[in-house]
Amino acid sequence: xxxxxxxxxxxxxxxxxxxxxxxxxxxxxxxxxxxxxxxxxxxxxxxxxxxxxxxxxxxxxxxxxxxxxxxxxxxxxxxxxxxxxxxxxxxxxxxxxxxxxxxxxxxxxxxxxxxxxxx
Length: 119
What we know:
The protein is an alpha+beta fold. It has five helices and eight strands; from the N terminus they run αβααβαββββαββ. The termini are far apart. 14% of the residues are buried.
């Protein structure tokens, strides 16, 4: 017999309150439409530039576009951002708004090292 527990549910707008995120990663195992539905205040926030999520259906696609986001792909090795409908890489979809601002942040950020390789 499987036991269950009740879990309180809050919208992303309720959770974030007055916070102004720059990037949001949504990984909710198929509940992405519900999260997006409860995030209109967050999606309208001018500071939000990037959303990364695992599932995109036609409703999410329309909502993100309505809030000014575009599908994109990013190559961290070259620090290259490209607006592209082919944005489903590594099991995630990348959406950006103000792509020139996002690219500038990527290109001017501090270099880092991973597995002995500098980027």
